[in-house]
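Sample pair:
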Amino acid sequence: MFDRGKRQVDVVVALGVSAQTASRWYDTWVREGRAGLVGAGRAGRRPRLTDAQLREVEAALTAGPRANGFATEMWTLARVAEVIERVSGIRYGQTQTWTILRTRLGWTRQRPARRAVERDDEAIATWVKQEWSRIKKAPGAAAPGSSSKTSPGSASSHR
């Protein structure tokens, strides 16, 4: 890229590296030319989970939690880490597991809708229509409140 006249900032944006890395590469290129950059290789640690293993893990995750021996249909990071270890033999912490899900698989966090199994929407609608409107219209419901911890008529309020 430097040979083609690209600036350091162009390298930063195109390759997603830090400005310091691009600056080091530029200095090396100025001193040693393109040959000086050949040995640089990839930046950072190689992932322990290979692409082939990742495909196996993804297939297991796609099958669902119950298919992987869990009691409920909800994935947690601990469960995903357990599946990764079972499939690949590699143990990851929850932070690393989340990074794998997010960056390598492109998955996002999703939370299930929290609804009680026993929920009766018809009964709730009836209660809101009848009881709530009755409670809301009760005498004194609209009276102003007091911010005092003691009531205005108590002996302690006359001291």
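Helices lie at 8-15, 19-32, 34-38, 51-63, 77-88, 94-104, 121-136.
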